Amino acid sequence: MHLFDDRLHLNGVDKDDAVAGCVAVAMKRAALFGRAPVVHDLTAAFTIYGFLDADPPEELAEERAELFAEVESSHHYFERRKLVDRVSEEALLRSHQAIAAQYEADWRQLFV
């Protein structure tokens, strides 16, 4: 995770919560490809939720503040699953570059 330390824009989301939630998204993406997670899966996950954007859309920032609250804790497994399940499988099957382009064009299309 240290590869992303200087790139994450948390805007009020706890770092451990952001990492835990995005690692879960990255693991789902990797599973769809039938392999272990790689850095591009993490890039995709952090992009989808706007953590690589210094000025994320206000609506997304508000949603993720609620979605990511305390998901690092094992007691919040179902909340973590909720934020993973919001991301469409179609989006996760795209390249991380295509995900970034879709985020810029209309981030809402990345979610179900």
Briefly say what this structure is:
Helix content is 55%, strand content 0%. The longest helix is centred in the first third of the chain and has 18 residues.
Category from helices, strands and their pairing: mainly alpha
Number of helices: 6
In angstroms, what separates the terminal alpha carbons? 27 Å
Number of domains: 1
Shape: globular
Quote the beta fraction.
Answer: under 5%
Percent of residues in helices comes to 55-70%
Largest sheet composition: none
SSE pattern, N- to C-terminal: HHHHHH
Notes on the structure:
The structure is a single chain. With 112 residues, this protein is mainly α. The protein has one domain (2-107). It contains six helices and no strands. It has helices at 15-32, 39-48, 58-67, 77-85, 89-92, 96-106. Helix 1 (15-32) packs across helix 2. It is globular, with a radius of gyration of 13 Å. 30% of the residues are buried.
